Amino acid sequence: MSDEFRRFDLNLLRVFNTLIEEESVLRASQKLNLTQSAVSHALARLREMLGDEIFVRIGSRMQPTERALELAPIVRNALHSLEVAIEARTFDPATAQRTFTIAANDLTTILLMPRILQTLRAEAPLIDLIIRPVTRIDLAEQIDLGKIDIAIGTFATTPSRFRSTPLFSYDDVLITGMGVRQPVNLETLQQMTLCVVSFGADEQGADGYLLERGLARRSDMYDRNALEKAYSSRGALPRVGVVLPHFLALPALLAVEGCAAVVPRQLGRALEASKQAQMQELPFPTAVLEVSSLWHVRQNRDPAHAWLRRIIVESSATLRDTGWENLATFR
């Protein structure tokens, strides 16, 4: 151990990690139960010891420097390892007080969170959840920095520093407004105005995925390639009249005559069961995709995190019976 490290105050690492999370001296002081002057003094000591500004004020935000971003995952991993080592034998969901942050779109929130919340109320009444949207954020960076505990989505590639577990699979179906009885084939679909969901239409690649720091996550929530292939010999695609960043507005849009939407099968079933829409099979096959939970490898040995991962998998059980294996004959 070097003399420089012996002189280093390890309490400064907690301040550093909290500033990375909060990007505010005020919020960091509140979270650490310290005065703002104490946090500012700790930041000054960090700057002196590390020979870097670490954080630069831009407006009301403390923006981390490149050196700080390099250190952030290392510090986070070290603090988390200490936390797991100390708490490994003491985690009891019935008495544990903890807040987990989950990144999920509104589809998985609608389908999964009611079941997860029921389990929390029964088994872990003091554990809270923060649900963050997956739109317009660098998801991989947020997981690396420890700001997100688990992400739920469809991932094409996952770097070695992440782990994942499959939750359920889905294909696409068509939903229309209540009372629409018109059978759907390639001709009738061509006359409709389609509403689709995409979480990053401006930034994604041609395959409908966003690539961030080695993590490729699906942002198009419909099989655009299958749609284009089905109409490749017909000259014109059905009109995609509305592209949304969320699913919640779809039932209201379906009230407009001639509008329909392409959605994952489980959501189509849920909207039909609640009488917000009618579900029909599309007149062409679409890809079967897998929704998974994703987390950083440093969380593997955290018993609380492992417990939450198990709860998410168990809450997905009813969604795994998709029924897409028995699709009607395509017209």
Automatic annotation (TrEMBL):
Q: Give the residues annotated as coiled coil.
A: none
Does this UniProt record's set of keywords contain Transcription? yes
> What range(s) does the HTH lysR-type domain occupy?
8-65
Highest taxon, organism lineage: Bacteria
Which keywords label this protein? Activator, DNA-binding, Nodulation, Transcription, Transcription regulation
What Gene3D superfamilies does the database record attribute to this sequence?
A: Periplasmic binding protein-like II, Winged helix-like DNA-binding domain superfamily/Winged helix DNA-binding domain
What InterPro entries does the annotation carry?
LysR-type_TF, LysR_HTH_N, LysR_subst-bd, WH-like_DNA-bd_sf, WH_DNA-bd_sf
Stated family: Belongs to the LysR transcriptional regulatory family.
Annotated PANTHER family: HTH-TYPE TRANSCRIPTIONAL REGULATOR LEUO-RELATED, TRANSCRIPTIONAL REGULATORY PROTEIN
Name of this protein? LysR family transcriptional regulator
Taxonomic source organism:
Rhizobium mayense
Lineage of the source organism? Bacteria, Pseudomonadati, Pseudomonadota, Alphaproteobacteria, Hyphomicrobiales
